[in-house]
């Protein structure tokens, strides 16, 4: 299910917990949720019209600078999990995302998270302003506030 709004651009995707993502008791390992966050963020950018591949091809990386994860409940092997990724904000060199993961069957809150990302030049590795491929995100959010 894809829904994008100008106010808070977000997307919701479903993920089925795979056996390899669980521990010996069949509980999803805490690190698996971080991988799922990336999946949601990647799909959100794609739905907004730009892919990570295009950003990298243009000479930029979007690197993680901060990650905050709060675990509320666990999920298990074969559970269907709904992940909502939201673009919370943009600045000249930074993108901020928020996440909610819920158990598909009961809507129980599993995880909330926030991540901050800095745009860096692929050549120098130094922070740089948002490339043209991403500046529309800033304009989109400004338009939503007006």
Map the helices and strands.
Layout: E1 10-16, H1 30-47, H2 52-57, E2 60-71, E3 80-90, E4 94-103, E5 109-121, H3 132-145
How would you describe what is shown here?
With 146 residues, the protein is an alpha+beta fold. It has a single domain (10-145), classed as Thiol Ester Dehydrase, Chain A. It has 3 helices and 5 strands. The chain has helices at 30-47, 52-57, 132-145, and strands at residues 10-16, 60-71, 80-90, 94-103, 109-121. Strands 1-3-4-5-2 form a 5-stranded antiparallel beta sheet. A hairpin with a 5-residue loop joins strand 4 and strand 5 (109-121). The longest helix is centred in the first third of the chain and has 18 residues, at 30-47. The two termini are 28 Å apart. The mean pLDDT is 89.
Helix fraction, binned, reads 25-40%
Rounded mean pLDDT is 89
Net shape? elongated
Low-confidence stretches: none
Q: Spatial order of the strands in the main sheet? A: 1-3-4-5-2
What is the CATH architecture assignment?
A: Roll
**Distance separating the two termini:** 28 Å
Indicate the structural class: alpha+beta
CATH superfamily: Hotdog Thioesterase
Into how many domains do the coordinates divide? 1
Q: What does the main sheet amount to?
A: 5 strands, antiparallel
- Number of DSSP helices? 3
What is the alpha-carbon Rg in Å? 16 Å
Strand count? 5
Give me the CATH fold name: Thiol Ester Dehydrase, Chain A
């Amino acid at each position: 299910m894809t829904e994008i709004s100008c106010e808070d651009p977000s997307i919701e995707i479903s993920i089925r917990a795979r056996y390899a993502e669980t521990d010996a008791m069949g509980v999803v390992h805490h690190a698996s949720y971080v991988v799922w966050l990336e999946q949601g963020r990647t799909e959100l950018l794609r739905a907004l019209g730009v892919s990570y591949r295009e950003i990298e091809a243009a000479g930029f990386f979007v690197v993680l600078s901060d990650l905050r994860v709060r675990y509320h409940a666990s999920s298990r092997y074969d559970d269907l999990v709904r992940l909502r990724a939201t673009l919370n904000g943009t600045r000249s060199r930074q993108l901020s995302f928020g996440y909610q993961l819920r158990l598909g069957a009961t809507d129980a809150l599993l995880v909330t998270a926030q991540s901050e990302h800095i745009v860096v030049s692929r050549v120098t590795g130094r922070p740089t302003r948002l490339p043209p491929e991403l500046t529309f995100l800033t304009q989109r959010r400004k338009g939503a506030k007006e």
